[in-house]
């Protein structure tokens, strides 16, 4: 039963309080290699952001809370007490919860190490005993050794290890304590754009560690200030703008038996030719790394000689446009073969030692897990990117099978013969998490106050995936239209999951026909579909939104296309502002949240992948700049930006606003003091919805 105090609350309050109805869901699922245990984090309910750690015994289906963060009265779970490195990691991961939000396990998944508010804890899954290891200062990213006897972590930019008594050894540090150099941490673009959140890796025998050394001194310094509190000193933030220097990243191997950089082996490669270290994997079959050139047109997978640091190339992938980095790929299999996700025959395919094992009508999305007998991966039919399924490749005969078939979005965690599948569908308001298709792990998330009224369409010659959301119990009367896209690479909005439409349904219930469309550049539709936006993140992306708008009267009769608004955040904010600049006859008002307004103000790895280097493609950057075309504004525009945003810097919106003012273009600006890119504060998230609604109602009034 919902707490009585929440029974009369509004959707914006519920949506904000529950962090978009995600708080209370089982998360961070790990399955032991024998399939006997399923470990996961979960909070007590939708109003509880503090996650505890649970273990499910697969044989008995009994769940046990092995680390209750509410019972740890001696520890503070406030994320504000985390190190600056952990706060940055949380922002890169868009993490808004507290308590246990990540953990590492030993090889057999018998115990775990994790950090709460900078303090180190160890939990034994068998005895359900948790103890705190006393460390002198706050730590970051603890990882237990495969044999479960040691823990590595980062403290004050040093890579350290300790035993279970807390006896510490510093493994890697800078002799001159250079504040620009860190050991064992991922650099900004690795965490924000590459999907590599970590900066060190244990050897499988627990005797050595591979660690990144990151020198940020070549990277431009920006300053993140808090104008609402002028006595607060701005903090420096190293940000690699497109076309400028990245951090210098190198990889080194250390023996855990020797302190302070002794017995160090330097991994050798030409950083000037292969600038990005995108992946590291150390298994019993060896240490492999993946390297990418600055242009992102070449990816090399290399084996590392751990005694000398020399590399030998085992796979090279090239692409004239770019090479996408795919989660879980490459994966070194137990028998020594290499599994990868590669572009083949117009789709992303699963390969095993360069043999394509998936058909040309399937788009592989990532590698979930590998076992000695199978590769588990996510994929969708090329004809329908609105669904996501779990698939399996048998490593004996390389046959492929579907593990999910129901229409929806399915993800998985695997260990031994145990498969845990999380499913979200349009039929169910909440997601389900099932173990081997039978036992359902309890989901403590609240049920949304709204039920999405959504229909799915494929529009035009390109069959653009489109969702239309109408008010519940709508009487058919004319409605102003609200486009609600993201529209950019690497993200979808049109999926067969109810949770994707909660906010859209609220806007619909306020009197809008809400339209969400995934056009060219969005994932899941094959190689050419994504590559169509190369060197131009504006024209075709906006053209597809316009095509859907023109087709709208044939899809739903109540759409009043004389009153069309558009809202979006991040890339969606860019697209919203672009729409009213380039197509004011079609789009009549826009809300642009945290928009990129000049692509040369965004980071290297993302921007150069699609736009090239601004030093050689200046015309493309100019053509897609909102700032350069501020003089075109004719429609109402609301700009929103968090002043503490370290991803899309507030400079984007402020420079755009300055350009608009220079051209005498009236607009509204909402600056959010102390707010980052993910707007985690409850009161901010709630009132942002209300503020946008009021603006759109006013701008689109008859």
UniProtKB/TrEMBL annotation:
Protein's name in the database: Peptidase S9
Query: Which residue ranges does the record annotate as region Disordered?
Result: 73-93
Alphabetized Pfam families for the sequence: DPPIV_N (PF00930), Peptidase_S9 (PF00326)
The residues covered by the Peptidase S9 prolyl oligopeptidase catalytic domain are 502-701
**One GO MF term, please?**
serine-type peptidase activity
Provide ranges: composition bias, Basic and acidic residues. 79-93
Which residue numbers delimit the Dipeptidylpeptidase IV N-terminal domain?
Answer: 119-410
Q: Which residues form the signal peptide?
A: none
Name any Gene Ontology BP term: proteolysis
PANTHER family associated with the record: DIPEPTIDYL PEPTIDASE 9 (PTHR11731:SF193), PROTEASE FAMILY S9B,C DIPEPTIDYL-PEPTIDASE IV-RELATED (PTHR11731)
Question: Which top-level group of life is the source organism from?
Answer: Bacteria
